[in-house]
Each structure stands twice: as C-alpha cells, then as structure tokens.
UniProtKB/TrEMBL annotation:
Limits of the PHD-type domain: 19-139
Alphabetical list of Pfam families matching this protein: zf-HC5HC2H_2
PANTHER family from the UniProt entry: BROMODOMAIN-CONTAINING PROTEIN HOMOLOG (PTHR13793:SF107), PHD FINGER PROTEINS (PTHR13793)
Annotated source species: Euroglyphus maynei (Mayne's house dust mite)
Protein name: PHD-type domain-containing protein
Alphabetized InterPro entries for the sequence: EPHD (IPR034732), Histone_Mod_Regulator (IPR050701), Znf_PHD (IPR001965), Znf_RING/FYVE/PHD (IPR013083)
Highest taxon above the source species: Eukaryota
GO process annotations (BP): regulation of transcription by RNA polymerase II
Keywords assigned: Metal-binding, Zinc, Zinc-finger
Hydrolase recorded as keyword: no
Any one GO MF annotation of this record: zinc ion binding
Amino acid sequence: MPDNPREWQCDRCMLADYDAACCLCPLRGGPLKQTTCKQWAHLTCSLVITNVKFDRQIVWKPIDISVVQPFLESDRTTCCFCSQKSNGNISNYIMGLCVRCTNTQCMEYFHVTCAHREGVLFELNDNLTSFRLLCKKCQMNKLYRNSSIHHHNPNHQQNDRREGNIELDMMVIARYSPNCYSYARIVEHCDEMMHHVQFVDNTFVDNIHSADILNRDCEKDRPMIGDPIEVIWNKEQLHGKYAGCHKTKMYRIEFDNGLQTSFKREDFYKLNDDIPKRVQTTKIE
Ligand SMILES: [Zn+2]
Ligand SMILES: [Zn+2]
Ligand SMILES: [Zn+2]
Ligand SMILES: [Zn+2]
C-alpha cells in the first residue's frame, strides 16, 4: 500500500478493465482483485466467503476462490436484501454467492456487499480466519439480551452491573471529571458503531469511533473490509485496513449543571448497583 492511501488503486483500475465485475455478488463498483481463475472479486466478498486469514499476502496475491467455485454453479439461494438469486437466472448472469447469518436459528441469506450496505454486522473471529455475520434482527436480539456486546474483560462484576434495565430519566452516578463522581440523569441511549482496524504492523484494534476514521464518513459510507483508511488512534494518525465493526450500547447522561456526556454501561452506576468505596459523589456547582 502506498504511503498515501488515496493513491491506492485496485487491480481493476490498474488494468483499466472497466467491465470487470465481482463474481461473488451483484454489486458493480468497488475495488476488485483478480482471482486465480481469471475472474474478479471484491476483497470483502472473497474474505467473507472463503474464510481465509486476513493478512498482507492477500493484498498482493490473486484471490483463490477455488473452494467456492463449485457452489457458484449450483447455489440457488435468494438474497434477502436484493431478492436476486445467487445465480442461474435466464441470462445466466452470475449473481454471486449468498452467505448466511451466523445465528443458527436465523434463515437470512445475503450477498456480502448487500449485507454490508444493509448494516449486517461483520466481526472477525478471534483466530482472524473467519467472520461472524449478524443480520440486523439478530443484532437487536443480542443487544436486548446483553444490553451491550463486549469482547474485552467481561468480568462478573461488570456482567452483574449490566443486568436490569436502564430507563430514561433514571438517576445514576457517573464520572464528571477524573476525580469527581456526581449524580446525573439518563437522557438518551443509542447504539454506537465501533470499527475494527488492522494497522500496517498487523496490530488489531476493535474500538475505533466513526469520528476517528478520517478519510470516510462511516455513517453514510461505511468502508468495506480491506479498504485503506486513515485513523486517529492513541492521538496518532495511522494508516490501516478496515476490518469490520460491531455496535455498543451508549448512554447519554446529563449532570446537574447541564453538561452531557456519553458513557458505556460499565462506566456509570445505578443507585442500587454495588458502588465501590472509591466512588464518592460530589455536588457539581
Ligand atoms: Zn479500482
Ligand atoms: Zn462482491
Ligand atoms: Zn443481494
Ligand atoms: Zn440473523
């Protein structure tokens, strides 16, 4: 990848093959790579469909879709978003392959790029070799069950504290400044998108806020997996590759003096939570 990600060109653009189209999905456009069988595919589509490990190699080598080649001929699943069958329609125009929501109870099938556009959650498994895909319905169910999705240090105390509903207008105790906790009120809760990024040195981070991705407006134009992005992380501006996202429940809390801040559930206390001794409330002037 060049130093400036904006100069990055996909294989299709470099070869000026403008009729090239992804053989794994119906989306026309987006960066394409050549496959070993001389077809074209989106990096996102091939990563998700073939479940190959995401590493630097992939960026340079042609995509190997030989594992899924047989299915391209035989699969007749219908995408729940674009309603196009996987392939085999009258014009024999290949419509790619559908993948399925990771929730085994769920029967939603979709094209990778259709899913991406419709807000299906793409999460890399811990071994970085396969993706979990969660359709919107299943994301919501999961949020209601857990009140938030967590990967890091889910210790018991935190789990216990997340039990029970947080209602609007509820009084809570939250950190106002580094050494000061105060009573405050829940004014809003919402899902915030946390983005996953693989940096050039292969570090993997999964808690990037949309606002910290500089070269894309993630709310309107979510990057595809593998897209080059510029990120603010630890106060540094870094280059990396987009690697998916998940949603976290965030709570907007208002202090007595009108100041509002967003908190994760584990960062504030309900009045009947087990409140640690170090948390002393102060009245804010
Ligand atoms: Zn291109
Ligand atoms: Zn595709
Ligand atoms: Zn589709
Ligand atoms: Zn589902």
